[in-house]
Please model this.
Amino acid sequence: MIPRKRIDIGCADLASGLLGCVAPGNTTAMRHAIESTWDTRASFACLSVRSGLDALLAVLALPVGSEILISAVNIADIPRIIEAHGLVAVAVDIDMQTLTVSPATLERACTARTRAVLLAHLFGSRMPMQGVVDFCNKNKYLLIEGCAQAYTGDAWRGERAADVSLFSFGPVKPATALGGAVLSFRDAALRDRVRAHVARWPMQSRAAYFLRLSKYLVLAPFGNYFVFGALASLCRLLGSTHEKLVSGAARGFAGSDFFVRIRQQPSAPLLQLLRRRLAQGEQSSALRRIERSRLLQRLLGAQCVGRQGREHKHWIFPIVHSDRDALIRHLAKRGFDAAVSASSLGVIGSPPGAMPTSDATQTFSQLLYLPAHEGMSESDIRQLAASVAAFN
Ligand SMILES: Cc1ncc(COP(=O)(O)O)c(C=O)c1O
Model:
């Protein structure tokens, strides 16, 4: 069975990370090496995007009840962090064909309490930001840009006019270091304040990072179609599904004590592996994934979410179908692991009275993710498209 997603890290990277956990390493030097080469804007390397956002909001200390406009499609931890700072996350609708948020939508959603806008580039697309930048400048809102899904290892560093751009290197991301994030700031003084805030947090333990690397080393064989298929069959035999195992394995901060877990500094071995991954640049695997996804998009046409998205790098491949559960079962019988949840993304609820997020909500009620990655051959993609078409 072809798994829905591949963890984008090789055994050599994992071995290098594991070695880093037992070798001496200097956090300050590693951090400097990343930050001095990442961007022409001021950069800051931290444990995760969620950690960086938490620190940023602590430093900004916006008045309680201030509103932040966020993309309606997001990970649930983003509003959770915003609310933990006494702020209100107001979800704004997304055009699910182009994966953009229009300035007109932002205009309708803002109130006298709005202070910032946090928009994510979704599913691997990179939305044009000029209209959003103009809207934020006009209203003097801070613009935070979520780039977690759109990095591929190339030279793209997000929108230069954004106040803060957030890049993640968590487990399911391209060029992953199984953790880590880099934030780019327009204002170096704000970066320095975030850095000073994070410096008070405890350091991630080397043992914890070692365990994380070991877990993914153990999981590596499941990228193999045969082994993955055997796991799925075994789960079925036991009266369960592989769904829980797969989504649990990809979660970065599972378990209790969420804020204790995100409020840590990255360890030296994590920074060392992150530096190694960044230095590798755009890998042929990323280009292959994009090429395979473009082919699948051409073959499937109208069913693809975000098919008019500009500069699409296809991190994951969502489509819509009115009977998605039956389609998932149909594809499983033909050896394709499609799923309703390939990531922890969903539609974010808004406070009462906020604008409805109808396009995002409607699309997500029918959305499923197809496997479309570098491990698949062109013939796999054609068979997948034919299997979807046969079901339609
Ligand atoms: C839009 C968005 N923001 C934030 C995150 C979280 O990144 P991290 O795991 O580095 O906290 C993700 C992860 O998928 C994401 O997609």
In short: The radius of gyration is 21 Å. Residues 82 and 89 are 6 Å apart (CA to CA). The chain has a mean pLDDT of 92. Residues 48-50, 74-75, 78, 120, 146, 148-149, 168, 170, 181, 252, 343 surround pyridoxal-5'-phosphate (CB under 6 Å).
